[in-house]
Amino acid sequence: MNIIGRIEEQNKLNDILKSNKPEFLVVYGRRRIGKTFLIKEFFQNKFSFYATGVLSKKSKTQLYAFNTSLKEYGSKFSSIPENWIEAFNRLKSMIIDNTIKIDNRYNKRIIFLDELPWFDNGRSDFKAAFDLFWNSFASTQNNLVLIVCGSATSWILKNLINEKGGFHNRITAKISLQPFNIKEVELLVNVQNGNDLSKQEIIEAYMVFGGVPYYLNLINRNFSLIQNIDNICFRDGGDLINEYENLFSSLFDKYENHSKIINQLAKVKRGMSRNELLEATKLASGSSFSKVLCELEECGFIRKYTNFKTSANNALYQLIDPFTLFSINFLKKKNFELWSNFVGQPGYYSWCGYAFEIVCINHINSIKKALKIEGIDSLNYSYYNSKLGGAQIDLLIDRKDNIINLCEIKFSNSEFVIDKTYETNLMNKINVFREDTKTKKSIQLTLITLNGLKKNNYSGIVRKDFTSDILFD
What we know:
Largest sheet: 5 strands, parallel
CATH class of the largest domain: Alpha Beta
Radius of gyration: 25 Å
Low-confidence stretches: none
Distance between the termini: 23 Å
Mean pLDDT: 94
Number of helices: 20
Shape: elongated
Helix content: 40-55%
Structural class: alpha/beta
C-alpha cells in the first residue's frame, strides 16, 4: 500500500474487517483530502461492489451510472432502474444470490459507494431507498461492510452523522479525514514524489498548500518551490487558480455563509467569539449559524478553543487552514501577477508571520513533545489585550502542572535576534498577562523559530527555544 500516515484510520479499517457484525462506515472530509484514495488503496481496489455518484447530474444519469456498476459486478439487468428502490433491490438480490462475491482475504462483502451525496439529486427517492436497503437488509448481513464516502460535508452531517430518522444510531464507524501534518507532507513531497525540498521549504509549502495531498502532489520536482507556486496558483491554466471559489461550494449548502465567517476570521489572528462573528458578518443567530461553525470545524478550516476568560458557551473560533489564508490574501485579491515577484516584499513577510503561527498551532502536540509535556493536559490558546499597555501572545500552553508556556512564534530566514526593544516588549507581555489573569502559575517564555535564536545579552529572557525541526517529530 502507498498510504502515507493515516495510522488511526487504517487501524479503524482493520478493526472493521475483524468485526463479527455488519459494519456501516462513513468517510468524510474536505475536497481533495484523499478520502477515495485511502479506501481504494487500503482495499487495493478489490471491492465486492463499487459505484460512484456523478457530479451535478439528474436522477436518470445517476441511476444509469449505478446500473452500469451493477452490470460490471454481475447483474443480469440491462435496463435502467425506474427508481432507487429498484436499484437497491437489484443490489440486494445480487448479495442474496451470491453474485457479489465474498472477498476471501477478509471473508467479507465490501461495498463502497463513493461520492454518495451526488446520488441524491433533486426530488429523487435515493435517501428513502438507501435507508431501506441498510435498515431492512444490509444491517442483518454479518459479513457485510458498507463504506460510503463524500466531500459534500453538509449532506453527510445532515443525512447520516446527525440524522434523527432512518440512520439514527445505525452508523457503526466514521472517519473524518483531516489534512496531513508536516512530517506526512515531507514524506509525500520528498520521499514518495522524489522532490528535494529542505525542511524550511516543506514548511513554506505547508504555509501555502496546507496538508492537502492533492495540492501537494502538484509540486513538480523539476522546479523550485517558488516556481511551483507560480505555476500552480498564478499562471494561466494553474490547477489551483480557481480552487478557492470551488472549495466551499463543493462542501457546504449555502456556502456563502461559510465564506463570510472564514473571511472575518482571516482578519483576526487570535480568533473571534460567536457574538463577534455574528456582529461582523451580520448573519442571524440560531441553529443555522451553529451548523455552519460546526461544519467548518469538522473539515479542519477552523478550531474552537477556550481560554481563562471564556467558557465553553463563549469559545473563540480561529482560522487554522493555511490554504484558505493564502487564498484570501493572494488568490482572491490578485494584487500581483506572480508569486516570484511578491516574495521578499513587506507584505510577504507579514503573511509569513501569520501563516507560520498557523503551522505551529496545527502542531501543538509536537511542541508539547519537544517540551516533554505530551502527557500533561493543557489549554492551548492565543491571547490579546488592548488595555494594560497592550499585549498579543501567539500561543499559550496553559498546563495542569501549574506552568504556562508563553510561546512566541517567529518566521525568520536567519537566526532570530532579540534586542533591547524586543526584550522590553516580551517583559511587558508577561506582566500584562500576569496582571490580567491574576495567575499564580510559573510563566516560561518559549521561542519557536525557523532557524534558531542568536545568543546575546538579551536572549536570556527565553527559557526554552526550538527551531521548526521539532514540528517534524
